[in-house]
Design goal:
mainly alpha; Rossmann fold; DNA Cyclobutane Dipyrimidine Photolyase, subunit A, domain 3; 3 domains; five-stranded parallel beta sheet; two-stranded antiparallel sheet; 7 strands; 46% helix; globular
């Protein structure tokens, strides 16, 4: 193959940042390669709206590059010559263009890193990977912070982030103190709504009517990937930088002020409440985390949003989001295989249909099917909690989160689902096997938690206070069954000590009744029988 002096510059669908180092490095001879491939919607089943969002945003981004006189090789989903996979499309581009080098921004997934290495090894063309400047803390910085720590506590990392950025800090350097005297206001931010629900009703996020580019994407998906899960009719996500900025302004203006106190609350027919719904724009790089934090802090400084709400929003971005990104790259490609609680059940069919009598699951999964969205408490304490306590395999859960949410990217969903939701990332061994890497304890809860934080239970046939009998809430049944069957595995976790004492107080007959009821529910749901006492 005769090589040219030009580079093949790959831009993946979650790298749509016109200010990225990769885009700044473009020269006249370079060709940008962007690929819509069916394999990326099939390696885990991808929601129609997730697929449409990625592809529409990519096409809008490519159009901007073309207007800048950049040479773009764009492979559309329904292109007759499309081979359907990144690896073969890059090889096809290499054969056609003969580049001297392949260049990209660091991908957001170990699987894609391995694919690029295979392509370059097979073609003999060198690969140059530029750092992803989107993040505040690079993977090597996080690794340096994590080195020699016996546990990775997000709160300590978050404090370092605050000092580093100066966000919500008084003073500078080592003498700087958090504004308001406290690092976080979690204790003030766990309020449920009263019986009347959120008052006044929160303003729904901006909706963006699909333009011709998006409509063309939807038509291509219908022709090429008609069997994808979810529905497309309500699609209204931001697909351009301009729309993402408008969505940010909408949140900052209309919902930020009440975000903090009610960030853990849930309410029927209110899927967004006071949440930002900006994660998809952040993960596609249409928004920068710094500008999101700085806009929120401006509102606090102007007296238009309380500290507890602004701090909570900043913590989600520079604390939790950066922490999760660091953990993903620190732990390596084998992280996905962990199963710390040794759970092997199948994901119930209701996760694809919302066909269930459980009002909480019907509401939360139903809105995912309708829009590809659920806020963090719905993910952690409803859909995630149910998978954890019923015994589902953690990889089945993490794959569902990756494919079914519009913000799904592997570096985000894997540590959140595997670590925080499923408590599966315990490294093992006496020193490190007591707690998880991301979560220090399982976030398991009974139906009573859902009753306290939502109104789902008011219309449900099940009673969250009952753990046996025909009206017993399956969430409550599985919760107690989970504690019984993981009693030995969690015995040394100090944060579980008080909870596990409740199991120890049960009579053998009560435990047997719960486990029998759980097995009946598990059989009805198609979840494999679980091992007990490990």
């Amino acid at each position: 193959m005769k090589h040219t002096s030009a580079r093949l510059v790959i831009v993946f669908g979650d790298q749509l940042n016109l200010d990225a180092a990769l885009i700044r490095s473009l020269t006249a001879g370079d060709t940008v390669l962007m690929m819509e491939v069916a394999g990326e919607s099939r390696h885990v089943p991808s929601h129609m709206q997730r697929t449409a969002l990625f592809l529409s945003a990519m096409r809008h981004f490519a159009a901007k590059l073309v207007r800048r006189q950049v040479r773009v090789r764009y492979v559309a989903l329904d292109d007759p010559e499309n081979t359907g996979a990144f690896e073969t499309e890059i090889a096809r581009a290499v054969a056609a263009l003969g580049p001297s080098q392949i260049v990209c921004t660091h991908p957001g997934e170990w699987r894609v890193v391995a694919m690029l290495e295979r392509v370059c090894n097979s073609t003999g063309i060198p690969l140059s990977v530029l750092p992803d400047e989107h993040f505040i803390t690079a993977p090597d910085e996080f690794a340096a912070w994590a080195k020699d720590r016996t546990s990775l506590t997000m709160e300590f990392f978050y404090r370092e982030q605050r000092r580093k950025t100066g966000y919500l800090m008084d003073g500078s350097g080592k003498s700087a103190k958090p504004v308001g005297g406290d690092w976080n206001f979690d204790k003030e931010n766990r309020l449920p709504f009263g019986k009347q629900g959120p008052l006044p009703r929160p303003r729904a996020p901006l909706r963006f009517k699909p333009d011709k580019t998006t409509r063309d994407v939807v038509a291509a998906i219908a022709r090429t990937l008609p069997d994808l899960p979810g529905t497309i009719d309500s699609f209204a996500w931001p697909v351009t930088r301009e729309q993402a900025l408008a969505a940010l302004d909408d949140f900052i203006t209309h919902r930020l002020a009440k975000f903090g106190p009610f960030e853990d609350a849930m309410w029927t027919s209110q899927p967004t409440l006071y949440h930002s719904a900006l994660s998809s724009s952040l993960n596609l790089k249409l928004l920068n985390p710094r500008e999101c934090c700085e806009r929120a802090i401006q509102m606090f400084r102007a007296g238009k949003a309380p500290l507890q709400s602004v701090e909570a929003f900043v913590r989600q971005i520079v604390g939790w989001r950066e922490f999760i990104h660091g953990v993903y790259w620190l732990e390596g490609p084998t992280y996905a295989d962990r199963n710390g609680l040794d759970q092997h059940g199948e994901l119930p069919a209701l996760y694809w249909t919302a066909d269930t009598d459980m009002a909480c699951m019907k509401a939360c999964i139903g809105q995912v099917l309708d829009s590809g969205y659920g806020h963090h408490i719905q993910r952690l304490m409803v859909t995630g909690n149910f998978a954890l306590i019923s015994g589902v395999h953690p990889r089945a859960v993490s794959d569902w989160y990756l494919g079914m949410f519009v913000d799904g990217v592997d570096w985000v969903t894997l540590p959140n689902a595997l670590g925080m939701v499923m408590h599966a990332d315990r490294r093992g061994g006496a020193a490190t096997g007591v707690t998880g890497l991301v979560g220090t304890k399982p976030y398991a809860a009974s139906g009573k938690y859902i009753q306290r934080m939502s109104n789902y239970c008011t219309t449900c046939r099940y009673d969250p206070a009952e753990r046996s009998g025909p009206l017993a809430c399956p969430v409550t049944v599985f919760y107690w069954d989970f504690l019984i069957r993981t009693r030995k595995a969690l015995a040394q976790n100090q944060r579980m000590a008080m909870i596990l004492k409740n199991v120890d107080r049960m009579t053998p007959e009560a435990r047997a009744q719960i486990t029998a009821s759980a097995d009946r529910h598990r059989q009805a749901l198609g979840i494999a029988r679980v091992e007990r006492g490990r």
